[in-house]
Amino acid sequence: MIVLDPTDESASAHREAIARPATLDGARVGLLDISKPRGDVFLDRLEALLAQRGVAVRRYVKPTFAKPMPPDLRREIAAECDVVISALAD
Amino acid sequence: MPDFPRDGVVAVVKRDCPTCRLVEPVLAQLAGVVVYSQDDPAFPPGARDDTDLAASLALGVETVPTLVRFAAGAEVARTEGWLRPAWEELTGVDGLGAGLPEHRPGCGSRTQDPELADELLVRSRGHTLASRAVELTALEDEAEALFDRGWSDGLPVVAPTQARVLRMLDGTSRAPDEVVAVVPPNLVPVTVEKVAVNAVLAGCRPEYLPVVLAAVEAACTDEFNAHGLLATTWGAGPAIVVNGPVAAEIGLNSGGNALGQGTRANSTIGRALQLVIRNVGGGRPGGVDRATLGHPGKTGFCFAEDEAGSPWEPLSVSRGVAPGVSAVTVFAAEGPRGIADQISRTPDSLARSLAAGLRTVAHPKLVMGFDATLVVCPEHARVFAAAGWSRADLEGALAEALTLDPAEIVRGAGGIEEGVPAARATAPLPKFRPGGLMIVHAGGGAGMFSAVIGGWVGGAAGSTPVTREVRP
Q1: What ipTM does this complex have?
Q2: A2, B201: Cβ pair inside 8 Å?
Q3: How far is Cα B247 from Cα B254, in angstroms, rounded to an integer?
Q4: How many angstroms away from the CA of A61 is the closest CA of chain B?
Q5: Which of the two ends of chain B, N or C, has the fewest CB atoms closer than 10 A to its terminal CB?
Q6: From start to end of B325-376, where are the E strands?
Q7: Helix, coil or strand: residue B424
Q8: Where would I find the UGSC-like domain in this sequence (chain A) (predicted)?
Q9: Domain limits of chain A?
């Protein structure tokens, strides 16, 4: 669907990804398993490596890799994390 | 532009039309006729594909079959449906369609199909729109996407598609690129088109657009001072009262529940103004809008004056607009609060009653600061009408009743620290500045309940009501 911008158009129409952080110190980090097989193995290892650096993580799982993330989960991650690492090991 | 023959005959048909199928042998009989098919390029054999309707639109076809003769590149004759003599005259061929009935009406052209109306509207006029097109992805919920982009006041908005905006623009004769006003707080020039986009968001019908445009013009004046009204921690917002024939034409409510919900024009016109200030001007709660509390009418506040039942001239006329001319008056407004008086049958008693309600605007002990609007209901207006009181008579009686005793309003009086500083409380003081009280007539036929609508700081230091004519 195409809609017309009701604003003064001074802001970008496309939302840009935020800049990659220089460090994870103090950042709230999420690990997202998209539910592809063995993604959890990879993410378990990342969690262990991050723990060695003193970075605690929150874990999230998409119900299925075949569909977009449910909006509620997206909102939950956005509210709870500064950084999210999505990974698969298919 | 489709490649029509410079000299020759063009036919436009569709398989779905029984008359078109009936004349298929006739078209086969006519060598050299260029046939365009609206729905099935295989019908009739050898037809040109016009499923995109480009040729039909270029010819302005309304009925199929349509037969058009060109001579020297210009249309010189046209017939619709099947009428043997007409076809024979246009083609110059006799004995067409032997065995067919003499006459059969055609069917509607696909260009008239309601299902295609939006698509064709955008194709023919979409290029006239200047606003940035934003594509929502298939995975986005449309309503959620509009919230996400910050375009809503908190209630759902109507997606401003190109077709809807084009239809909205049909509500005015003003050019889409005409600049209507410079919108505070960011001082952004707003065009008719951009107002139309926000009117779609707000849920307006196209016929409301002239009223919205007039309201935007009025609100974006130095006198109205929308920036200050927005930025103040006081909770008032812009309200619109509409006078003149446009009110009834577009179904604005001036009767029962005129200040309430349930009438589309009332609910959406005020909302459109607020969305223009939000989206174009950049005035948002938490940003420039610093209201401590605000009020529900800041989502949109618009009603019409009941002129037919009023004992007085229309508000717009008393503000300098010619009788019979439609106008909006924009004023700073808190939420309305009722004043019940079911006993007074004399104008003097009723005026004092209404004055008592008006005295509480901002604070019962503060004067000369805040403006107010009094909405007089029909059963109260009847008391004034029976006594022959003009609007000026009522204003005079209210002013008299609202000339306050300094002993009552000085700081500390009544055990209340708030009030007029002792240095100013040396003589009786008027509650409102000259011109700071506006009187409007509206409401349902039953109920002796008028309403006070508190305003904001009046005059040059605050906001003055502004009236503008509604242009078609």
Answers
A1: 0.83
A2: no
A3: 8
A4: 19
A5: N
A6: 327-333, 336-340, 370-376
A7: coil
A8: 3-90
A9: 29-87
